[in-house]
């Protein structure tokens, strides 16, 4: 074999495109680990999108929150927010058996409470099921609501869900999402020290 | 050639490690862990202490009791804020509709806040709101000693269950601070013939 041919042959060995499987596998693994880690970190650091996925949830933003001792006409029934009385209704896992004044209850919503209302005449077993939830959850209150257009309404500031069954899993979903939830206009405000009777 | 490849590999590893680190660290405490349960339940527990402290300040003119109550109300309000900020950062709900104290007992308490150790009953709270002067002081001290003992127990319980440095620090200050206040209140109660 002539010298130049031998040199070309050696060169060919060096430049030959042999697939570097080892490197490909290595970098693929490293890359996958990096992608997985970034994804996990991203998912964990993302604030929970409160209430997303609760079917039938009504959302209302930009509600006013002035204090007034006079009566307020609310657009929604029960009201989801708006101007309200300077005194909040106590909402320390509280069950009221008589209807509340809207203007005080709305102030409890401002403090991060969830207000469960039901149409008078709701079956006792249904009322009991709701009461069990209220007793387990600080920053919640419950009261009958005459002329309610659904058997049950769950209300937080700017968030509302109307239901027909107290055992609907959306009750727990709503409570988890909105008790002292991100919609709260006045986080840290109390559920005691306010109005203690209907 | 080889040196460059080594550099590339090291760089890739560095990127991977840097990316993994925050994920591992935030894994120290999360929405479903004992830390979140503690933050939720201790917030409820503290809120009642704040309420009782505010009440007794309205019911007595005794400087020692009013100062202690001021201390408890402001401190525990601040601590509720700290624990709420943890829950926000962890993306954790502020309530557990299945009931409080599951992180300690592994089972739900349908009884709600009343099932939480050391909590005053609605009747006891009403009695405190009606009492005045020495009677209010004695009742407050008795209720708050029981309340603090349970608070210490809950803080010790989370210390036994968490590796999160921030949670450990606050829980330790609760144990020490409330134990010191229990000693103080026991003395004050004795002085008042309680």
Short key terms for the protein model shown above:
heterodimer, A: 198 residues, alpha/beta, Glutaredoxin, 2 domains, 6-stranded mixed β-sheet, 5 helices, 6 strands, elongated, B: 194 residues, mainly alpha, Ferritin, 7 helices
Question: How many structural domains are formed by the residues of chain B?
Answer: 2
Low-pLDDT segments of chain A: none
Look at the structure and give the CATH class of the largest domain in chain A.
Alpha Beta
Count of helical stretches of chain B: 7
Form type of chain B: elongated
Number of strands of chain B: 0
Tell me the helix content of chain A: 25-40%
Question: What is the second-level CATH architecture of the largest domain in chain B?
Answer: Up-down Bundle
| SSE order of chain A, one letter for each helix or strand | HHEEHEHEEEH
What is the number of domains of chain A?
2
> Structural class, from secondary structure content of chain A?
alpha/beta
Note the main sheet of chain B: none
Q: In a few lines, what is going on in this structure?
A:
The complex is a heterodimer of chains A (198) and B (194). Chain A is 35% helix and 13% strand.
What this model shows, in words?
The complex is a heterodimer of chains A (198) and B (194). Chain A is α/β, with parallel strands linked by helices. Chain A has 2 domains: 3-45; 58-178, Glutaredoxin, CATH 3.40.30. Chain A is built from 5 helices and 6 strands. Chain A has helices at 3-15, 21-45, 102-110, 124-136, 170-178; strands spanning 58-59, 92-95, 114-118, 140-144, 152-156, 159-163. Chain A has a 6-stranded mixed β-sheet with strand order 1-6-5-3-4-2. The longest helix of chain A is centred in the first third of the chain and has 25 residues, at 21-45. With 194 residues, chain B is mostly helical. Chain B has 2 domains: 1-29; 31-191, Ferritin (Up-down Bundle). In chain B, 75% of the residues lie in helices and 0% in strands. Chain B is built from 7 helices and no strands. The N and C termini of chain B lie far apart (84 Å). The interface between A and B is large, with 42 and 43 residues. Chain B: InterPro entries: DUF305_CopM-like (IPR005183), Ferritin-like (IPR012347). Chain B: This is DUF305 domain-containing protein.
